[in-house]
From TrEMBL:
The gene is rpiA. It comes from Roseovarius indicus. Keywords: Isomerase. Pathway: Carbohydrate degradation; pentose phosphate pathway; D-ribose 5-phosphate from D-ribulose 5-phosphate (non-oxidative stage): step 1/1. Substrate binds at residues 33-36, 89-92, 102-105, 129. Its EC number is 5.3.1.6. This is Ribose-5-phosphate isomerase A.
Length: 262
């Protein structure tokens, strides 16, 4: 990658850079998916290569697995790991209770399995992801391809009785074809505007036949590390509120920025 990074990319980078301070020798680490998580994987790779950090990574997508291997992180499956010490991942939205919408990158199913099987989940995000109420970002719902139109109709009917502003569910596309997840499923993006009761929404969606998982991550995240374009980093802990604010120097290292994907 050449040239100056945008303020959003700098914000993502500094959040990612700070998050790897939580990683210790011997840990089994869940590796999220998306552009912010990709920065984190690269920062971890640097620690593995240059500082001899010994970790095993459990990727939450084939994309992340490929990147982790490329940067020198030992990759194991979640079943090999059995349980994880820490998962670090991005998010599309987070609220004041550190509840999240995830799945903008289409990896919500593996991401939720990996985060749920971890002692701790840290989310890394730029400040633009903070919201008062979840729902402005379309809520991704992973559905099986069989009968997806029927599932969509049932979801839209269900939404009539829910506290939301919008009710449209669109099939995520990849060019002219439906987007297909790592598990071979489709994604419906629910344009809700505002979700009045995200706990209830997460529960009722998952009770519907055809729905595999939804992108609401309720009571899973412990810490959000928020990056700003000027290098400021805030750390919000679910138990302690904002615990730390400082600034990271932004240094474009050739190793980290040369061939970044996403
Ligand atoms: O949930 C995700 C992928 O399924 C991502 O974490 C989320 O979409 C944020 O992505 P980015 O860091 O690129 O903004």
């Amino acid at each position: 990658m050449s040239g100056e990074l945008s303020p959003i990319d700098k914000a993502k980078f500094v959040a990612a850079k700070r998050s790897v301070d939580y990683v210790e020798d011997g840990m089994r680490v869940g590796l999220g998916t998306g552009s912010t998580a990709a920065w984190m994987v690269r920062c971890l790779g640097e620690l593995v290569r240059d500082d001899g950090l010994k970790i095993r990574g459990v990727p939450s997508s084939t994309r992340t697995a490929e990147l982790a291997r490329d940067v020198g992180i030992e990759v194991i499956s979640i079943d090999e790991a059995k349980w994880l010490d820490l998962t670090i991942d991005g998010a599309d939205e987070f609220d004041g209770n550190l509840n999240l919408i995830k799945g903008g990158g289409g990896a919500l199913l593996q991401e939720k399995i990996v985060a749920t099987a971890s002692d701790q989940m840290i989310v890394i995000a730029d400040i633009g992801k903070e919201v008062e109420h979840l729902g402005a970002f379309p809520l991704p719902v992973e559905v099986i391809p069989f009968g997806w139109q029927t599932t969509r109709a049932l979801i839209e009917e269900l939404l009539v009785s829910m506290d939301v502003l919008g009710r449209d569910a669109s099939l995520r596309m990849n060019g002219r074809h439906p987007y297909v997840t790592d598990e071979g499923n489709y994604i419906l993006d629910l344009h809700l505007g505002r979700i009045g009761d995200p706990h209830q929404m997460a529960m009722v969606l998952n009770q519907m036949p055809g729905v595999v998982e939804n992108g609401l991550f309720m009571d899973i995240c412990d810490i959000v590390i928020i990056g700003h374009g000027n290098g400021k980093v805030e750390t919000r802990d679910i138990n302690e509120g904002t615990v730390e604010e400082d600034r990271l120097d932004f240094v474009e290292s050739d190793n980290l920025f040369s061939d970044l994907q996403d």
